[in-house]
Amino acid sequence: LFTMSAGLDYDLNSAPIRNTREKNNGACPTVETIRALAWQPLGFDPGEHYKYSLCHDVLGALIEIVSGMSFGEYLKKNIFDPLEMSDSTFVLNDEQKKRLMCQYRYNGELGRAEKITTACPYKLGEGYESGGAGILSTLTDYGKFVDALACGGIGASGARIISEDMLSLMRENQFTDPVRFSDFAKPGYGYGLGVRTHLDRGASLRPCPLGEFGWGGAAGSQMIIDPVNHLSMFYLQHMLGTPFNISDRIVNAIYS
């Protein structure tokens, strides 16, 4: 599940999800929804290869079962509150709703960005808290999170959210095959536990040290977590289909 190789897919409108939503009048309780996915056949044997999917959503439901808390409550208690991330949540309050940024899609034919809905497709229904998507946050809040990961698991607040040993495991490449962990992966990177991890500077053409890790978002966000230099970078934008590769320029500027 951590390595996205469990045989699941990312069909957000599968029969189990639709049935759960209809049965609960539009709600999709996290654990009930994930339990329903067990009726869906796997696409391949677990561990056979990488496929970006709902794997981490299953892990979110597992956390609910083990902890006895909702996934959102668990994150708040163990990550958000310790790192003083007061603007990170699955459900916005009225004041936060006023600050929610627009999202855009780049129209190549017209050569401009166009506003689209702010609705999150990964919120499958009321009550669903996804392990793979759906948390709303800010540049400042998420910057605190990537800073903690770059500094051995300890945030600027002084709180530890993860051990150094687990961080080391998290950024170890989990696949023995050549780097083909996804269609949108950068050359020179492998896949760790939920993150890309830097394996080959010659292939990546990036100045980051080996073992730098992180992830990027569909609308253009990008993070660099460099535990060698205790350095982090989080770049945020809200434009799907962007033709601009701004984050690589920022990375090169930082390291030069």
Description of the structure:
By secondary structure, the protein is an alpha+beta fold. The protein is 30% helix and 12% strand. It is built from nine helices and eight strands. The strands form three sheets. The protein has a three-stranded mixed beta sheet with strand order 2-1-8, with no helix packed on it. Strands 3-4-5 form a three-stranded antiparallel beta sheet. Strand 1 and strand 2 form a beta hairpin. Helix 1 packs antiparallel against helix 2 (30-37). The longest helix is centred in the N-terminal third of the chain and has 13 residues, at 55-67. The chain is globular, with a radius of gyration of 19 Å.
In short:
The chain is built from nine helices and eight strands.
What structural category characterises the helix and strand content?
alpha+beta
Percent in strands: 5-15%
Please give the oligomerization state of what you see. single chain
Number of DSSP E strands: 8
Number of helical runs? Answer: 9
Largest sheet strand order: 2-1-8
Order of helices and strands: HHHHHEEHHEEHEEEEH
The span between the termini is 37 Å
Instruction: Show unreliable segments.
Output: none
Mean pLDDT across the residues is 91
Radius of gyration: 19 Å
Largest sheet: 3 strands, mixed
Shape: globular
* Helical residues, percent: 25-40%
Descriptive key words:
single chain; 256 residues; alpha+beta; 3-stranded mixed beta sheet; 9 helices; globular
Secondary structure layout plus pairing:
Elements: H1 15-23, H2 30-37, H3 55-67, H4 71-80, H5 94-98, E1 103-107, E2 112-116, H6 139-150, H7 164-170, E3 189-191, E4 196-198, H8 201-204, E5 213-214, E6 222-226, E7 231-235, E8 239-240, H9 246-255
Parallel strand pairs: 1-8
Antiparallel strand pairs: 1-2, 3-4, 4-5, 6-7
Helix pairs in contact: 1-2
